Amino acid sequence: MTGRLTPLPEAEWDDDIRTALAGLLPRRRRNAEGAGNALATLVRHPELAKALMPFSAYLLMKSSVPARLRELAILRTAGRRRCTYELAQHRRMATKAGLTAEEIDAAVQGTAKGELESAVLAAVDELDASSDLTDATWTTLTAHLTEQQVMDLVVTIGAYALLAMTFNALGVRPEEREVELDDRL
Q1: Which of 71, 113, 158, 162 is spaced 20 to 30 Å from 141 by Cα?
Q2: Torsion of CA 35, 36, 39, 44, to 10 degrees
Q3: So what's the pLDDT on residue 183?
Q4: One domain for residues 49 and 78
Q5: Half-sphere exposure (CA, 13 Å, Cβ side) for 105?
Q6: In whole angstroms, what is the distance from residue 77 CA to residue 29 CA?
Q7: Is pTM, for the whole model, over 0.85?
Q8: CB proximity list for 37: less than 8 A, separation 6 or greater
Q9: First-last CA distance in the chain
Q10: pLDDT tens for residues 60-93?
């Protein structure tokens, strides 16, 4: 994969770019190194980044979906989309959300223990395959989650499918060094 986009070099960062990241990153991380490869690549288009960052921040920090379920959904989405960047980042976030290494590997492959977690992974598979949920998955999700949680879950799955396609197409690679995770995540 040659000729794809690389993170924007620090020398090319300006206030507009730092403003684009304000909703997602603390001030100390609004730089090429602190932002990490994905965000430092997305800021090549500051207007797009400004539009995308509040939405992404909501999904990671304010969504009604519990962190464990969110990470299961993201891991399965990243696995289906073969997005190495998302898999690397969200393995770390899933660990922080309480998932074991075995649970993380199983989620990437599409298996989980328990009715709700299995339904979350089924939702990823169904939405990816048909852009819809079966009645059985809907029934299981709504038996365990509120209406708003189900809505947040569906949007999270769709958003991370979009991000996986974006990161894959732009050539965003996992970090060579570990980027600090914000405590809000």
Answers
A1: 162
A2: 90
A3: 42
A4: no
A5: 3
A6: 27
A7: yes
A8: 7, 85, 172, 173, 174, 175
A9: 31
A10: 999 999 999 999 999 999 999 999 999 999 999 9
Task: Please indicate, yes or no, whether residues 18 and 76 belong to a single structural domain of this protein.
Answer: no
What does the alpha-carbon distance between residue 81 and residue 69 come to, in Å, rounded to a whole number? 18
Residues whose CB is less than 8 angstroms from the CB of residue 8 and which lie 6 or more positions away in sequence, other chains included: 17, 32, 40, 41, 43, 44
78 in the same domain as 141 = yes
Q: Are residues 98 and 48 part of one domain?
A: no
Q: Which domain holds residue 21?
A: 10-61
On whether both 134 and 166 belong to a single domain, the answer is: yes
47 within domain boundaries: yes
Same domain, yes or no, for 160 and 73?
Answer: yes
Which residue carries 């922080």 as its tokens? Answer: 96
Residue 179 has pLDDT above 80, yes or no: no
Residue 80 pLDDT: 98
| Last residue in a domain, options 24, 40, 61 | 61
